[in-house]
UniProtKB/TrEMBL annotation:
Protein name: NADPH--hemoprotein reductase
Lineage: Eukaryota, Metazoa, Chordata, Craniata, Vertebrata
Needed cofactors: FMN; FAD
Cellular component per GO, a single term: cytosol
Entries under SUPFAM superfamilies matching the protein: Ferredoxin reductase-like, C-terminal NADP-linked domain, Flavoproteins, Riboflavin synthase domain-like
GO terms, biological process: response to hormone
An example molecular function term from Gene Ontology annotations: NADPH-hemoprotein reductase activity
Protein's organism: Sinocyclocheilus anshuiensis
Keywords, sorted A to Z: Endoplasmic reticulum, FAD, Flavoprotein, FMN, Membrane, NADP, Oxidoreductase
EC number: 1.6.2.4
Length: 587
């Protein structure tokens, strides 16, 4: 920073790329206030050097921190988080600010951002501006813009500087076309090492993906208009290890027909080899995606061509717009005004428009539907194909699920492959098999429990004392989408599954969901939880199901255990802290 005269460093903890994008926007904004910024991955730096930031006059560290899973830091922020927990460095004289990215439907809303803000203050850092809390359940970007609009005036006041009035430079990357290049030097979809798809070497992670052959791809539901599927990936030669409850990250590719349409629209030869080079030579990120690559590879493997554009992109595009009315509309949508927000909501979000100024295509995470004790060389996925018609009549297809659906196993022996790695999770069976388990997972939320039940069966075979294993599953119709019905009923007959409770929500006039069945068995459940040390697991939709299940457990504690509502909330909070109430939920 000293060498390059920078005084603002913006660290990001990012799982899907949004926090990284916000960090880049803040770093670019800095020059409008006579400051010089850089956006940085904490994984690439020794954070114990942070206390030296005070050696640079008018300096500050800003943190854009996303919370992942059940209050966890993102993968790239894990070491930084561990450092914060263990350090006693004196950060007096270090100026800081934090913007958290979270989702209110989750129990531990913005836990990582809140902890970063609190910890830096405890270590003596000086808070330049209040903690910002973005909520992805409403509009994360609007929360960020509102925070940013107050953040910079506070920075000006804190450091005694003024806005220069300069707009931030739009062009971040320069396009270089390679007319004469050895194709062995060109990326073809790899995330890290060039040619890593041709010569596969463990260990496999987010920068070095394993190409797992698809050995099974079968439809799970017998009827209805949805497509639910069970997929098996062969990891025999990978040295990949997993536990029941972990997640498998898969890297999908975009639809080839859509990629071709984009090429036509832009009037480019998709097989032209290009590089995008960062105009900021001191940046540690030289390219936005692996370069050199062809337009086709970039649009197929690296860029999210289905994403709706963020407001800053609309603002940047407006500067190239020749039509004054279009320009005014784009600037309006990029603003924080009520009229602009409404226009952005209807024209961009509701219509699900996408754009060619593109964010990076991200990994998709699926709860593993198998146990490594029973299937040590394969990883199973249970997923529903996403496809629906938007308000403007366009058919929207989920990138990853439609891509997976097409990975059919052919009779000629050719096997499709899936680039993947395993992400560890805290969603684990009890250490002692004798502890009872209560699992609640409607729809594809059944996935980790298939692995859990397989593991309990294996433990039983090993002669271990296995506690009660109770499942609450929900689907629409018994004859259509009772997933894994045969396997589950087999486990019940064998005495592995002590109780199989299934809510068929639409098989009768009034809807019945898993939470209704929980309430029906309240006495038994309270005894298992309160007296027998049972572990509770919930998997599936965070917005409605997980909340409703939560409420059902509160009511059970109140009705059977005689607790007040406040005591019930506190009771289950303590279970969460002890790791006896675990959730694997998504919004």
């Amino acid at each position: 920073m000293k060498k390059t005269n920078r005084n603002v460093v913006v660290f990001y903890g990012s799982q899907t790329g949004t926090a990284e994008e916000f960090a880049n926007r803040l770093a670019k904004d800095a020059h409008r206030y006579g400051m010089k910024g850089m956006a940085t991955d904490p994984e690439e730096y020794d954070m114990s050097e942070l206390s030296r930031l005070k050696e640079i006059p008018n300096s500050m560290a800003v943190f854009c921190m996303a919370t992942y899973g059940e209050g966890d830091p993102t993968d790239n922020a894990q070491e930084f988080y561990d450092w914060m927990q263990g350090t006693d460095d004196d950060l007096e004289g270090v100026n800081f600010a934090v913007f958290g990215l979270g989702n209110k439907t989750y129990e531990h809303f913005n836990a990582t951002g809140k902890y970063t803000d609190k910890r830096f203050a405890e270590l003596g850092g000086k808070r330049v501006f209040d903690l910002g809390l973005g909520d992805d359940d409403s509009n994360l970007e609007e929360d960020f813009i509102s925070w940013k609009e107050q953040f910079w005036p506070a920075v000006c006041e804190f450091f005694g500087v003024e806005a220069t009035g300069e707009e931030s430079s739009i062009r971040q990357f320069e396009l270089v076309v390679h007319n004469d290049i050895n194709m062995n030097q060109v990326y073809t979809g790899e995330m890290g090492r060039l040619k890593s798809f041709q010569t596969q070497k463990p260990p496999f992670d987010s920068k070095n993906l394993f190409l797992a052959p698809v050995t099974v791809n079968r439809k799970l539901n017998r009827g209805g208009n949805r497509h639910l599927m069970h997929i098996e990936l062969d990891v025999m030669d990978s040295k990949i290890r997993y536990d029941a409850g972990d997640h498998v990250a898969v890297y999908p590719t975009n639809d080839a027909a859509v990629v071709s349409r984009i090429g036509e629209r832009l009037g480019v030869d998709l097989d032209t080899v290009i590089s995008l080079k960062n105009l900021d030579e001191e940046s540690n990120k030289k390219h936005p995606f692996p370069c050199p690559s062809t337009y086709r590879t970039a649009l197929t493997h690296y860029l999210d061509i289905n994403n709706t554009p963020r407001k800053n992109v609309l603002y940047e595009l407006s500067q190239y717009t020749s039509d004054p009315q279009e320009q005014e509309n784009m600037r309006k949508m990029a603003s924080a005004s009520p009229e602009g927000k409404a226009l952005y909501q209807s024209w961009v979000l509701d219509s699900e428009r996408n754009i060619l100024l593109l964010p990076q295509l991200q990994a998709r995470y699926y709860s593993i539907a198998s146990s490594n004790k029973v299937h040590p060389t394969s990883i199973h996925i249970c997923a529903v194909v996403i496809e629906y018609t938007t308000k403007t009549g366009r058919v929207y297809k989920g990138v990853a699920t439609n891509w997976l659906k097409n990975k059919e196993v052919t009779e000629n022996g050719h096997k499709h492959t899936v680039p993947m790695y395993v992400r560890r999770s805290q969603f684990r069976l009890p250490f002692k098999p004798s502890n009872p388990v209560i699992m609640t997972g409607p729809g594809t939320g059944i996935a980790p429990f298939v692995g859990f039940i397989q593991e309990r069966a294996w433990q039983k075979e090993q002669g271990k004392d296995v506690g009660e294993t109770i499942l609450y599953f929900g689907c629409r119709h018994k004859n259509e989408d009772f997933l894994y019905q045969q396997e589950l009923e087999e486990f019940e007959r064998a005495g592995v599954l002590t109780q199989l409770n299934v809510a068929f929500s639409r098989d009768q006039e009034h809807k019945i969901y898993v939470q209704h069945l929980l309430k029906k068995n309240k006495e038994q459940l309270w005894k298992l939880i309160h007296s027998n040390n049972a572990h509770i697991y919930v998997c599936g939709d965070a917005r409605n199901m997980a909340r409703d299940v939560h409420t059902a457990f509160y009511e059970i504690a109140e009705e059977v255990g005689g607790l007040t509502h406040t005591q019930a909330v506190d009771y289950f909070k303590k279970l969460m802290t002890k790791g006896r109430y675990l959730q694997d939920v998504w919004s």
